Amino acid sequence: MTKSHSDNIDVLLNSSLPSLKKLEGERELILQYSREIINICSKTIESSHTGDKEKAINYLNQAKIILKKAKDISNNVEGSYLTGNILLQSEQEYVEAVLTYSYVFDKDINSFLQDLNITSAAIITGILDFSGEIRRLLLNALMEEDYDRALECLNTMRYIYGKMVAIDIRTSLIQGFKKKLDQLRIQIERSIEQLHLSFETNKLTDLIQKNYK
Fold first, then answer.
1. Which of 6, 49, 59, 135 sits 20 to 30 Å CA-CA off 196?
2. Which of 116, 32, 26, 16 is nearest to 77 (CA)?
3. Which fold has domain 1-118?
4. 153 exposure class (CB count in 10 Å sphere: 0-12, 13-18, 19+)
């Protein structure tokens, strides 16, 4: 190999390595942010389930700030398609947390999603994961014998399923879509069985109590 050829290679390497080194550093920071977002979103969901509105909204605001930082970094580095993929799970968790908070406390979601440009795939999988939180609310309602609330939860799950089945796109583009949709279908079937069983058991208990007073 002539000196000119080796010089050409050195020039190309020297011009490429700094940007790759920067990408490596940005990737590590985004990974850190992603872990923080997932952790905070879990706290948001738990606070929503326990009815602690103040904690839930504080956690949600924290998650939004960190997600915005991570998205800004990802959008402004070379190879953003690589760093963007890292954020899919945290975006998905954030969507799930926002929907859970909104459902429990009957709040609008727009302010929490504004300026984030969350990817479409993360929105769809986030909605599907949210159905699992609806399932938890349904079970809690059954324990409290609140059948109206349980039926509302069931109808919400059915609505989500109907919307997802009707999606007119190649769903193979969305990682995990089919598995999550199958899980939702199973959740709906089990919820119908449990709602019916709980209702019938409650009616039988009332009948026994009336006849043996």
1. 49
2. 26
3. Methane Monooxygenase Hydroxylase; Chain G, domain 1 (1.20.58)
4. buried
- Cα separation, 7 vs 143, in Å, equals 74
User: In angstroms, rounded to a whole number, what is the distance separating the alpha carbons of residues 158 and 121?
Assistant: 20
pLDDT reading at 59 higher than 70: yes
| 99: CB partners within 8 A, 6+ apart | 109, 126, 127, 130, 133
Instruction: List Cβ neighbours of 95 (8 Å cut-off, separation of 6 or more).
Output: 113, 118, 122, 123, 125, 126, 127, 129, 130
pTM greater than the 0.85 cutoff: no
Measured in residues, the chain has a length of 213
| Predicted confidence (pLDDT) per residue in 1-25, tens digit | 566 656 556 566 565 555 556 666 6
Domain boundaries of the chain, sorted by first residue = 1-118, 120-213
Domains 1-118 and 120-213 share a fold: yes
